[in-house]
UniProtKB/TrEMBL annotation:
Residues 28-188 form the AAA+ ATPase domain. This is MoxR family ATPase. InterPro entries: AAA+_ATPase (IPR003593), ATPase_AAA_core (IPR003959), CbbQ/NirQ/NorQ/GpvN (IPR050764), P-loop_NTPase (IPR027417). SMART domains: AAA. The lineage of its organism: Bacteria, Pseudomonadati, Spirochaetota, Spirochaetia, Spirochaetales. GO terms for molecular function: ATP binding; ATP hydrolysis activity. It comes from the Bacteria. Signal peptide: none annotated. Gene3D superfamilies: P-loop containing nucleotide triphosphate hydrolases.
Length: 275
């Protein structure tokens, strides 16, 4: 068990249900799997947890071609070969351990202080990677075969795993995690998020920007709906535009639609609606 309690941060709005599952996962020392559409704050939550608990954040960005060993450690055979050929290194080429570099999971295990480990977009990896990784995280140890050495975690990291649901996760994987789906914020929560990012914003501008934003998200045939980060960047642009009048939003005119929509077809649709 742990005495660490996450209460949110000044720049991350945390609802009660999410707060509970984060702290239950920390107390039970179980990975927390977060799902939700892009832009709902899954990755940002890991940053907030690290900040709120005063821990370093280690981020493992999962790639489709990634092998589990890459996340654990890398054996730099090329550097060792060069050292042995040219003989101008201070390293002893007979000591293979000098050529072992810890990967992101390995760093979290070998650190003298407890870390927050974010495993981002796990759904990009294949099923074997997912299940083998959770075996390592369950056991809190792994072997470095080149030097016949077992690495055992000094501290169990706080583990947050994100998925954009592009690919189903295996039942064994799901069974080893606590789970939370971060729904896209409703308008009330989004106004709180906007207030956090823009504490001095004109209230009418904030209200009308949020209202226009949700209207745009409801447009038919939109392939990639704008997310929270697009709204934040859009409001920044509106505040920087000296000739902008918030009444334009009420009239259906949408300045800077390219900040909100990143697909050509979506942008054309938004421009057609806003005239």
């Amino acid at each position: 068990m742990t005495d660490n309690i996450f209460k949110g941060t000044d720049n991350y709005v945390l609802d009660q249900e999410l707060s509970h599952i984060v702290n239950v996962s920390i107390a039970l020392e179980m990975p927390l799997l977060l799902k939700g559409e892009p832009g709902t704050g899954k990755t940002q939550l890991a940053h907030a947890v690290a900040s709120g608990l005063d821990m370093e954040l280690i981020v493992l960005n999962v790639k489709s071609s990634m092998k589990l060993i890459d996340a654990l450690y890398q054996y730099d055979t090329l550097t060792r070969l060069n050292d042995s050929r040219f003989g101008d290194s201070k390293r002893d080429v007979s000591r293979i351990e000098d050529y072992i570099k810890m990967g992101k999971i390995g760093r979290a295990f070998t650190s003298d202080k407890r870390k927050v480990l974010l495993i981002d977009e796990i759904d990009k990896a294949d099923t074997d990677f997912q299940d083998d990784m959770l075996d390592v995280l369950d056991q809190m140890e792994f072997d470095i075969t080149e030097i016949d050495k077992r690495i055992t975690a000094k501290h169990r990291p706080v583990i947050i795993i994100t998925s954009n649901s592009k690919k189903d996760l295996s039942d064994p994987f799901l069974g080893r995690c606590n789970f939370h789906h971060i729904a896209f914020p409703d308008e009330g929560l989004m106004r709180q998020i906007v207030d956090v990012h823009f504490p001095e914003i004109d209230k009418k501008l904030a209200e009308q920007a949020v209202e226009a934003f949700y209207s745009l998200r409801k447009l038919d045939d939109i392939e990639k709906k704008p997310a929270t980060r697009e709204l934040i960047n859009w409001i920044r642009a509106l505040e920087l535009e000296p000739d902008f009048n918030a009444q334009e939003l009420l009239a259906g005119r949408i300045p800077f639609p390219g900040i909100l929509f990143k697909r050509s077809e979506d942008l054309a649709r938004a421009r057609k609606i806003s005239g």
